[in-house]
Amino acid sequence: MTEQPRLAEQNAAVLLPEPFVKWFGEKGWAPRAHQLELLAKAQSGQSVLLIAPTGAGKTLAGFLPSLTELANRPRRKPGQARRGIHTLYISPLKALAVDIERNLGKPVEEIGLPVTIETRTGDTPSHKRQRQKLAPPDILLTTPEQLALLIASNDARRFFEDLRYVVLDELHSLVTSKRGHLLALGLARLRAFVPDLQTIGLSATVAEPDELRRWLVSQASPGDMSELIVVTGGAKPEISILDSEERVPWAGHSARYATPEIYREIKRHKTTLLFVNTRSQAELLFQELWRVNEDTLPIALHHGSLDVAQRRRVEKAMGENALRAIVATSTLDLGIDWGDVDLVVHVGAPKGASRLAQRIGRANHRMDEPSKAILIPANRFEVLECRAALDANYLGAQDTPPLVNGGLDVLAQHVLGCACGAPFHPDALFDEVRTAAPYASLDRPTFDRVIDFVATGGYALRNYERYARIRQTKEGLWRISNPAVAQQYRLNVGTIIEVPALNVRYVQAGSRGAASRGGRVLGKIEEAFLETLTHGDTFMFAGKILRFEGIRENECFVSNAPGSDAKVPYYGGGKFPLSTYLAEQVRAMLDDPRRWKKLPEQVADWLRFQADKSILPKRDDLLIETFPRGNRYYMVAYPFEGRLAHQTLGMLLTRRLDRAGAKPVGFVATDYALAIWSLADMGWMFKNRKPSLATLFDQDMLGDDLEAWFADSWLLKRTFRNCALISGLIEKRHPGKEKSGRQVTVSTDLIYDVLRSHEPDHILLQATRTDAATGLLDVGRLAEMLSRIRGRIMHKNLEQISPLAVPIMLEIGKMPVNGEADETLLMDAATLVEEAMGPEMTD
Amino acid sequence: MNFSLPRATLIAEADLVGIAGERAVCDRRGVLYFPDLRLLAVSDLHLEKGSSFARRGALIPPYDTGATLLRLQAVIADYQPRIVVSLGDSFHDGGGAERMHQSFREQLEAMMAGRDWFWVAGNHDPEAPADLPGETVRELAIGSLLFRHEPSKQRVEGEISGHLHPCARIVQRGRSVRRRCFAGDGGRMIMPAFGAYTGSLNVLDRAYAGLFQLETLVAYMLGAERIFAISGSMLRPG
Asked: What global pTM score does this model have?
């Protein structure tokens, strides 16, 4: 697909205006083939998807069509009307927009182009935004939320009338979320304003490029795709798995055992980037590294909960190559250019082959030099997973998640936004919405229900006609009822829902925050975690060990507790489920003893031991072990389908086992396995087909059992809250007052209960169930697994725990079995009181 | 013990408490029943909260009034009280009774028929509800009990109030459980909010400062099957 370099050189002269050719010459560079190819396609009127690894000059490629066109544009004569935005650049991160402004400004200045470039983000002061409306820049760098706001303003059509290109950066990461849905709808709106608008998508490698190609263009003719340019190559990364001299632990995620070996690697390299999967791992690794940091190397910490100023300092230091190592979570995943990183260390399993590839791309940001990376598995299963990911990376396998249909809550937000901009006709808007790929299969009745929802809440009890937010005129146009609706909309735009979190502020030890309020803010911590702390508890945050002093209004007070051990280990943050692709690879590896040679000896031994004591599952089989231990009976299943799917499976199986009389007591799920324990002998029950495992694992559990469990699951309430906020049912912010997260949580839970019992088919509950099924519960993946294992369940009834079961058995008691056992806890507390005080106050 | 309870089974799912010498059933559904007086107290119904929000542009489901009345109907059917005291904030705002759907009004009137019904004035509904029977009072004294909406600052033995929407939180095995609750210290009692859309405020919040004798404070947390009496020393703020 990519043209030969020589041909490209000839093309350069044809395609590029003279000042560009000269600029490349002065730099001693030649335009790359894919840059010219993209330019040629854009100039012929096509929209294009460019897939290239980091360091391939993607940004310049994306802007060349705009820059060359702007270079050739005649200068505006005095008195001539101002021109609108020429190119809109949209990125998932504010920081990326700022970064691009800098990187793009340089060539524009050096070539001497008459082009103005400005950013517009949540941080842009309002006077600058006002000015941008009156005198728009040629190129506007912004985010999906800002685009939604621009579209909802009443001069949107005029503001965008001169728009030629929309450049979408990091498209692979944008499209997988609700932000992507909102952006797709915004793009459809822009296409309605400017029918011959062209899009240019920039993306890292993905599993299904065609999905993105459809996403970029109107789906008025279903299946239409943009042009595609793929840049392959780049030097093959050198990846290894740490072959530790230490014992690799059975379970856990800290990888603490490898700290000295990691430190040795940091010393050997210029700058090391250390990736971990969760914030708690980041905090822990950072602590551990400083514990052994005899040479006091500059090692920094970076994650999304830290105070912004703190993060900016680290980023700046990185850019200046002043750091030797940075411990980071996914906040640094996206394509921002940082200093000369020459080693990437990935602690914990990468969970997906594509994620690993993207993270490794961070090292040596030049395409032609090999990146160097070391994987540090935190436990034995992770050794298998790292090995699988490593093989996949060499094979170039991709396992980015497939795209899902657009959310109805997002559509509701967009519909209100459109009405805020200008009155719309439902027929026209329906057609327009369906040109957006995520909504291509939306049906008219559903669309009409969404409009009804936006207008009056869409309830069967038609009580709110007089409070309608939008009303239909005689001509059939929907318009907002009053200007306050638009004001409210603008405050609540967007799909990013923040988890309720509190500022963490330093105070003097023991002051409980009452006396001094002065200390500095370290960052934000989820309220749910803070709720489990009591005064004096110690925990790790911002690279420090802190003592919890108390909560006052929306702030959490802490004091320094150096030298003590962090008592409370758990602290949330992003967790990714194991990708389907890697799961399959791990199963394949278990089934093939020849591949064990590539594994560290202690891990291979573990598998041989398992084969001896129990059995290893065949690639497409599901192994189920049962054994007694203590006064309980255990069942351990090894589906390798990821934590979310296992959790759902655990909930459903427990219900079924309960009905079958097994008296299940609890379960625990990891990425690899699921363990359920009970009072009755499940091994005996399965052997005597009471019930048989085939019946227990029958797909019909996804019917009634799932429905019944859905009904009162706390997971659904959390999902409902998001849908309620995004759809505008509940406001994130109301003019003049900010709601605290707690108030919103409480009321959406109550609303959920009421709505579910009175109108279970309400469109918002429909949206909630769809979201939960794809997101939190991974029902789709569970369904695939259940159909795959039909007739392929291997049961091994054992006298005692098997080697393979050790890791998950170690998780029991460490992980809270979430949500459903509140009553038991209350019972415990009440019993304690009774024991301590006697049957007090009961007559 | 000889209570004139209509159904003996109710005792099993309720806790008997003493308030200023008067015996009361703390029902897990959030109502207080005085068997000797055949009096049922319920607080903070906040009827028509949904439509109150809708007026300001938040179109939350209009089913809260129906849901609240249905639950109220159930407890009234169980206890068959002679007297019902609604402890204030019965409607979310002054226009609530007027906005209420005709079917809900009829449902409410059917519940009120044949018994004495008192609307205690609350801060949300200081006036008598439009076109509804029942007597509107600022406060109500019966025997050793005093019913009012807001707890008074100075200690009043036997005071039953609402307004604060108490809830309590405990932490067990690293997990946190928060529930609505009755809060009492043997002398006074603050009732949980009954309305379907009512939020709650922790009994350890500053708003409760000085109201209770902390040594004897008990939070009667509402469970799915029963009431859990938790002593003040086990409670957590937040």
From this structure: 0.83
